Amino acid sequence: MSLFGKSRKKILVVEDEPDIAEGLDARLGLADYDVIIAPDGKSGVEKARAEKPDLVVLDIMLPKIDGFEVCRIIKSEAGTKHIPVLMLTSLSMMGDVERAFDVGANDYLSKPFTNERLLAKVKSLLKLE
Amino acid sequence: MTKILIIDDEPDIVESLEVMLTPRGYHVVTASSGGSGVGSAASEKPDIILLDVMMPGMDGFETCRRLKNSDETKNIPVLLLTALNQSDDKVKGLDAGADDFITKPFNDVELRARVRAFVRTKKLRDDLEESYRRLKELEQLRDSLTHMLVHDLKVPLTAVKGGVETVLDAMNKKENLLEPHRRLLANAKSGADKVLGLIQDILDASRMEENKLPLHKSPVDMAALARSCAAMVEPLRAQSQVALTINAGPSLPEINLDEALVGRVLVNLISNSLKFTPPGGTITVSLSYRPGEKQVECAVHDTGSGIPQEDLEKIFDKFFQRSDFQATRKGQGLGLAFCRLAVERHGGKIWAESENGKGSRFVMRFPLS
Asked: A103 to chain B nearest CA, in Å?
């Protein structure tokens, strides 16, 4: 907590495509969030543990460890299980949504998404915490 | 040469058949029992089988059933050898899968005509199967093309759409445009460039395959070209946190090339290396002259993850996807296929070398004249 009310919320974005990561960074940054980027699943897990973000935005197709596994790990560890996870799914992969919830994701957003939907989901998940 | 397998236990009959067929240019192989005949059919892959009905042990009907039940031999026509007037043999034989029968004593003209007819039919069938197989291959190629396009176009387009949308929103709401808005637009522009580049690669690759892409050759200083390519990939390089150095050997002669095309090849190779080299790594572009072969060599060496040996040649195939990337559903694009076509259009060569864990090295050589 800062003197001026609540501190800025910290969002960890786990995304390997630089174009998408950069876009999310800028869009969430404009909405006054602190953004940390992890370019693969392994560093995603490490940063979730070390940085204790308020929210994880998690892509599914990731090198090293995929998004489902990252989510499963985050949700299985005492230090990180409370962190809400928003999975980025692909419209063409119908089974992904079920799998996302199976591994403990709190919500999903199918790509491509509008700015409004992204920010609405982020906001509601941050209240949930 | 047409190969005929004769399965018959009576040496006299086998011999008389051989006498009719061998001088006419047929290659005859024989088996003296049903069991050994089934084995020979699989190993010899004859074009046609002449099969006796009356044999001790496995008779002709059972032999025929086995031949027709095996994927290896089921397409080989089987002509049953039966005695005259044994019509129930003929029915039983056809029911066992035989294609036709011929009655003893054999008329050599009729025998050869039958053989010719079945060889013709078999060839038609084989051709049909071959074109079906090729169609299947093309279908698979089309599927991987679709897959590649969907992925490789979607990611940069998502960046374009998201960036433009956000900035447009802000402008509609009369908000001040801030630094992140500029970054979003820059990101959108680089996404649009990628989509355009991919489309250009696809168009050029097919035009090059049809030999329709004209080369605009002029004397080129490869070191200068490498430097301008390095400048083009600078934003990507900075983002990847990889060092890029150019080593130009002394007395590098100018060389007649299509500068724009070779420049795109080099940008392709460097971008590729950037993609597969972790932060902190190095990419080196080395240029040298090989006086013995009168060739200019341009090699791009990275400290990335390297390429599996079995994939070194295949990565230049159109639509090839490295097995180790299939899990991430990542498209590889046309990049390297395009590079090979472009280098070969110049009479040059391109290949990849990699030692496990020591990165990979892409080498191009262009003839001086």
From this structure: 18
